[in-house]
Amino acid sequence: MSGGAQLLLVEDERNVAETLVERLGAEGFQVTRADSIASARRAIGSAQFELALLDVGLPDGNGFELARLVRVRAPATAIIFLTAHAAAEERIRGLELGADDYIGKPFHFRELLLRIQKCLKRAQELTRVPGDMRGQVRIGRALVDFERFSATVNGESVALTHKECAVLRLLAERVGKAVSRDEILDRAWSTDEFPTSRTVDNFIVRLRKLIEVDAADPRVIRSIRGVGYLLTEINRE
Question: Does this model's pTM top 0.85?
């Protein structure tokens, strides 16, 4: 069931795009099509989307650049990359940008539909915030708002992705206790995404830059050798 979810499709191949718009529409989705980064920017500025299907190869740039824009302007939007080149390096790059899935061309429509439905369901699970994590939570030098996918550092607001929020929230829920990389992977990623321990480590690096006074000497998110990571303290405000 789509529930009338709003989708953004960024695809420059006209035949592919028109077919997807028609077939996704028949499944109950509300689809907005863009054929370039420029037109996608306009769409993102004028509407809210629950999921974006981003072609990696676009005439005025690539889907990775667009994903960064989506993450800043609409961090709650799930992302699926569409690409003719599904090399491991590209999958890793997409995951590190916070992508929710990755599908290579050509693909069967039924597979894409199942992945969309799965991503939407997973996004809902990742954005469900328990009562004790609502409002602003002080973690290191950042004031984190899990409901709005944002953090405020030195008066400046920074957008957080679904996965960044999920990782940070898991550590906060288990404050003072070590959390394994496997548990972090289970919380924030699906097995279809081919995540690795390196993926978790890269997310931790970004989170440390946000919340640590000195990311090179982390005191808030500590590494536990052979296990994973431990959040030392939080304060609810």
Answer: no
